[in-house]
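Help needed: design a sequence for this.
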């Protein structure tokens, strides 16, 4: 999977469009994944090998494809459908021109009235024909997206109802939620449905959705459009407006108000609310596509009690729990909107969920750069807010959490500096102390995660408390770069150790067996020495040599236990009088025991350690606003010292972890949408790398400009002949250097 992601990243780097060109990539929605599944199951088979498991897996794959398509199309909403208030200022003239022939859902109640307004005017008829010719293809693609969201909802609801009715033989909701893969997939399928609604409402404003749906009906005819009524209901304006669009509207309203307009007031309003937000948003939006209440309740019960991704073993310490359950917490946040009664009234359930998932964090990364602040998102839900204010959102608790994270960051940074010193991080360091190395990796990533997320909290008081204890931005960037560099080196060393482990094990095994055989020969008298013969010890050493030869590294637990017993036996035999009286034999035994210990350490470096390293090093939470906020500092650092660009290589490698989330189920399902989805997200990653690299040509031309200025202003033409005493003045060394 990692190799495939890097291949897609390289493909995107070679084929990504220039910043000025904005072609719309082909859709990946119309693949075989959208076909309906058969609804039967064979008995006594693993969940993912049966139809029940494959059905929910394909649903999750479809959900990821739909969200990728939504993200793609959201970047290309035509200005005409956004309208004058919401479009980019440079495109307001275009939006105003098409406004008379693009209608919201008021058209649905009186289509004849609106159509007659257009047909009665030659100018409007021509404009309508021009709009259709210009926008028909993109409008059709948006409608296909909205229809896909609705069909996903219908298929998911049907699957949950059939599961409850026992339609899948020997697969019930209870059985699925007891299965590791099953509970992950059910939770993700519901959360993906919720994410479609949330991202659709944030990325494509409601008024634009209404105009797109109505335009499709007018261009294609109501008979040709699929699911007209449910899609229209789903896409109806919810009243929510993302901050980006709210600020644009505030600017337009201020311009309309004239020189004494309220632009400052409107901008403050947009900043305070993060856009226009209806009461108890987004419950009304989720009510348009509800899921079976019993299934939602059972899933929330599982999430309250279980670690569905089994990450607590990777983050074993109690104070690491929020990081261990971060992915699960995102599912909890989204799925709770399908259970509004829990958010509003059920204080006991909310207290359990908050204590488990949000006891020390309230800024939550949900999906691919979509981050929420629970101090704002749950402000209108009494039960949820009461649970948060009981502990997490108390001012003294916020200050204590910020202080603890800052101290953790300083400790981890000191450890990183030691390990990154020249010659400190070697294969021996990794094999001898893999646990200690992973502890440093955990500490640094968890401290970075908490500080980077919570320094962007929307609550002014909490943000001030965090920034009071948090290190400055430039130190945070230093820490991030050091952590990325440490991970890059560590992964390389771990892969090298694993690649050479079989050969190293065989070499050590043969050497230990040979040493034990030599000891046996010494006590047998085969090798001339002053050591008294002892057939018992000789036979015992030969038996140990046989046990060493029989060790199987493919069974690390059993082999490790046997090696541990062998080491204890070799240490005990050193106390025998016939052995203890010969220092050479004692040293030989000590060397053999050390080599056996090295074999145990080789067993500790398994492929699972590399997998754990990947999970610990995840940086997907910072994608979007957080990593973009560091861009000016990266540019400044490159301009001050171009060599700093080399240190960012590891950061770019760390950022590839963003590709894991959207493609995981797509790869598992074997979907044909993989290339389309991976290319979309890898193109975004390449675009960010390009923005970082923009500082390089700027630095080059600044240097060239200084060189040109020195040559034109400070240097003089050297005459053909001159006195030696004038050499220093003609050289102008100060100006040159």
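Sure. Designed sequence:
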């Amino acid at each position: 999977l990692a190799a495939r992601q890097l291949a897609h990243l390289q493909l995107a780097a070679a084929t990504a469009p220039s910043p000025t060109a904005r072609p719309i990539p082909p859709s990946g929605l119309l693949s075989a994944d959208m076909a309906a599944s058969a609804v039967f199951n064979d008995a006594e088979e693993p969940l993912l090998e049966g139809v029940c498991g494959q059905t929910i897996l394909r649903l999750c794959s479809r959900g990821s494809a739909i969200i990728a398509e939504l993200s793609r199309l959201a970047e290309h909403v035509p200005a005409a459908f956004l309208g004058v208030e919401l479009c980019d200022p440079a495109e307001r003239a275009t939006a105003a021109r098409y406004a008379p022939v693009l209608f919201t859902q008021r058209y649905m109640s009186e289509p004849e009235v609106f159509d007659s307004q257009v047909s009665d005017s030659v100018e409007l008829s021509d404009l309508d024909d021009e709009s259709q010719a210009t926008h028909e293809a993109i409008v059709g693609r948006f409608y296909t997206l909205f229809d896909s969201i609705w069909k996903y909802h219908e298929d998911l609801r049907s699957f949950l109802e059939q599961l409850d009715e026992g339609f899948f033989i020997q697969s019930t909701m209870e059985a699925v939620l007891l299965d590791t893969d099953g509970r992950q997939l059910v939770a993700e399928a519901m959360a993906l449905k919720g994410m479609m609604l949330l991202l659709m409402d944030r990325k494509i404003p409601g008024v634009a959705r209404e105009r797109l749906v109505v335009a499709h009906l007018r261009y294609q005819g109501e008979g040709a459009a699929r699911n007209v009524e449910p899609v229209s209901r789903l896409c109806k304006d919810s009243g929510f407006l993302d901050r980006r669009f709210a600020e644009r509207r505030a600017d337009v309203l201020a311009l309309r108000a004239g020189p004494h307009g309220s632009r400052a007031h409107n901008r403050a309003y947009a900043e305070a609310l993060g856009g226009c937000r209806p009461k108890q948003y987004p419950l009304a939006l989720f009510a348009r596509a509800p899921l079976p209440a019993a299934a939602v309740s059972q899933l929330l019960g599982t999430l309250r009690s279980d670690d569905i991704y089994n990450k607590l073993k990777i983050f074993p310490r109690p104070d690491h729990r929020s990081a261990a359950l971060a992915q699960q917490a995102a599912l909890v946040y989204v799925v709770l909107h399908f259970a509004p009664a829990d958010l509003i009234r059920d204080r006991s359930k909310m207290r359990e969920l908050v204590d488990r998932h949000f006891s020390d964090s309230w800024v939550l990364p949900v999906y691919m750069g979509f981050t929420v602040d629970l101090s704002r998102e749950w402000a209108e839900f009494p039960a949820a807010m009461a649970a948060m204010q009981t502990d997490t959102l108390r001012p003294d608790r916020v200050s204590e959490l910020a202080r603890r994270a800052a101290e953790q960051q300083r400790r981890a940074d000191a450890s990183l500096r030691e390990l990154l010193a020249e010659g400190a991080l070697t294969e021996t360091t990794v094999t001898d102390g893999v646990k200690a190395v992973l502890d440093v990796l955990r500490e640094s990533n968890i401290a970075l995660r908490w500080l980077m997320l919570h320094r962007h909290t929307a609550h002014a008081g909490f943000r001030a408390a965090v920034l009071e204890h948090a290190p400055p931005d430039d130190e945070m960037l230093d820490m991030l770069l050091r952590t990325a560099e440490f991970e890059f080196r560590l992964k390389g060393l771990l892969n090298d150790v694993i690649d050479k482990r079989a050969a190293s094990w065989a070499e050590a095994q043969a050497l230990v067996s040979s040493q034990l055989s030599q000891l046996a020969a010494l006590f047998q008298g085969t090798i001339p020495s002053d050591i008294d013969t002892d057939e018992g010890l000789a036979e015992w050493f030969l038996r140990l040599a046989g046990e060493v030869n029989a060790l199987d590294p493919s069974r690390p637990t059993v082999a490790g236990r046997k090696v541990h017993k062998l080491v204890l036996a070799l240490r005990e035999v050193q106390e025998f009088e016939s052995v203890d009286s010969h220092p050479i034999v004692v040293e030989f035994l000590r060397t053999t025991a050390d080599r056996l210990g090295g074999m145990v350490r080789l067993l500790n470096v398994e492929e699972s350690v590399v997998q754990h390293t990947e999970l610990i090093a995840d940086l997907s939470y910072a994608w979007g606003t957080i990593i973009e906020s560091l861009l000016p500092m990266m540019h400044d650092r490159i301009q001050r010292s171009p060599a700093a660009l080399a240190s960012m290589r590891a950061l770019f490698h760390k950022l590839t972890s963003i590709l894991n989330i959207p493609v995981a189920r797509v790869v598992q399902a074997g979907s044909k949408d993989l290339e389309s989805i991976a290319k979309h997200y890898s193109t975004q990653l390449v675009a960010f790398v390009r923005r970082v690299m923009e500082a390089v040509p700027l630095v080059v031309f600044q240097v060239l400009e200084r060189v040109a200025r020195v040559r034109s202003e400070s240097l003089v033409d050297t005459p053909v002949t001159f006195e030696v005493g004038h050499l220093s003045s003609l050289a102008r060394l100060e100006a040159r250097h």
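The chain is about 70% helix and 0% strand.
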